[in-house]
Amino acid sequence: MSVPLKVRSKSGRSGGKGKRRAEGRAMAQEKTVGLLFLVARRVVVDVLSFLVFFLLDLLDTILCYLFKVVDFFVENEWTPCYCSSGSDAIISSGNIMVSEQGRMKIVCISADKLQLEDISDTLYSRPSIFSEISGWTAARVRQIKGMEEAGRSNKAPSRDRRRNGMLRSRYRINSTIVEMLQGKIGRQMDRLLPRWSDCYCSKCTSWVTSPKQSLYVRANGLKEPKEKEVTDVLFIHGFVSSSVFWTETLFPNFSDDAKSRYRFLAIDLLGFGRSPKPADSLYTLSEHVDMIERSVLNPYNVKSFHIVAHSLGCIIAIALAVRHPNSVKSLTLLSPPYFPVPEGENGSQYVLRQVAPRRVWPLMAFGSSVAAWYEHISRIWCLVVCKNHRLLDFLVRLITRNRIRTYLVEGFFCHTHHGAWHTLHNIICGTASKMDDYLEQVARLSCQVTVLHGADDELLPVDCSFAVRSKIPRARVKVIEKKDHLTIVVGRQKAFARELEEIWKPCS
């Protein structure tokens, strides 16, 4: 009786091992199939991305000449763009490029000021198939010409190449700037009027007739708080947004206790919403921070304050905290666009590739790539969409029978191409070389730092927030599951309002 039992036991064990082997082989096959599927999908996306962006490169080149012709007939002057070399574009726009300790800056000449500003080289240096081909051809022609002249003059070709433009020229400030400035004095209204491709509605142009050029501020509370314990909270929105991103989501959901203790100040950044959109501004980081000081901190007598910022606004918030180290009580950053630059990389170009990777999928990456790489296609967007934001708002209300709140339309569509284009490049890309130093300075401050990020954010990866914590060890990072770049606030405004109140209590 024992023998059959032993035989059955062996067969049972061998059968179990065979079953496990079969399951292992099935799992291995599933992994192989899944890996092949991922590789195939990556290949398909790469091929589609190449074809789509090849066509977009061609379209943007055509639009460049088309806009020049239309601008000439409508505005009676050629409008410079950044498709030509950086120095030529800047000089033709009324600015002089200079070099200061190896860093590119320009002398910005407006109707009433002359200042030195940092600009991002991604404004005029965005490699594309057509630019690389034309650039290689032009460089080869200049090289041959330089060698011929060098042979005739027995001089080194390298010097001739410099003389003939192989290397970017450097311009020094001279007396011609004074003449240019004098020519612009008295023409301020010409620089303030919107272009033919911009919106002319009263909401977008109300700042033109304002005697005091300052940001549009939505304040919840008295302008001069009577109680000493009232603390200010400054809200800074992200790219192509406005103060309604906060006032329509968070402001109604704060508790009565918070409304009695805090004064909420939400601003429209320079170039967005109802704030000024000057055509002679380069929308650099210093200009944005200066306008916040002039429009909010000084007139509202803000002494100490909390900052809540989203996306691009996080960079401005960090710069503001560095400029006012003893005034900031807490810093709450939502989806900060911080990409540590590897050693030896060009910072602005590296960040441009991270934010706008020239891929058709995911859709957020495709949209950011089109906005960042194509100067004239993005102007088409402003011409078709931003200029007609009132019509779009009406159509949305009509189609949905007024069941959907359209406050985001104002934020997304109330801006000019000039302001959005320069803000995107000069803030996100142009500050790449400064961010490490800024974060290290914030790390030495005593203010509380909280970073929130949506786990499903397809525009800025969660790694950006953890990179911030690597520079600010005390920063608390919280990843919100099943939320993306916008729904980290929109859709969870009540919960986020409670989170902010908990952040502010210890600081108060």
Describe the structure.
By secondary structure, the chain is of the alpha/beta class. It has helices at 2-75, 86-92, 129-153, 157-163, 176-184, 188-192, 202-205, 244-247, 256-261, 285-297, 312-323, 347-355, 363-373, 375-384, 389-399, 407-413, 417-429, 432-443, 463-471, 493-507, and strands at 96-100, 103-109, 114-118, 216-220, 231-236, 262-268, 305-310, 328-334, 448-454, 476-480. The radius of gyration is 28 Å and the shape is globular. Strands 4-6-5-7-8-9-10 form a 7-stranded mixed sheet, sandwiched between helices. A 3-stranded antiparallel sheet has the order 1-2-3. It has 20 helices and 10 strands. It has 2 domains: 98-186, no CATH class; 197-507, Rossmann fold. Helix content is 52%, strand content 12%. α3 crosses α4 (157-163) and α11 (312-323) packs across α18 (432-443).
Q: How much strand? A: 5-15%
- The termini sit apart by 83 Å
Largest sheet descriptor? 7 strands, mixed
Helix content: 40-55%
| Number of helical elements | 20
Spatial sequence of strands, sheet with the most strands: 4-6-5-7-8-9-10
CATH class placement of the largest domain: Alpha Beta
Task: Give me the strand/helix succession.
Answer: HHEEEHHHHHEEHHEHEHEHHHHHHHEHEH
Radius of gyration: 28 Å
Structural class: alpha/beta
Number of domains: 2
CATH superfamily of the largest domain: Alpha/Beta hydrolase fold, catalytic domain
Q: Which term fits the overall shape? A: globular
Task: Please tell me the CATH architecture of the largest domain by its name.
Answer: 3-Layer(aba) Sandwich
Give the beta-strand count.
Answer: 10
State the CATH topology of the largest domain.
Rossmann fold
Mean of all residue-level pLDDT scores = 81
Low-confidence stretches: 155-190
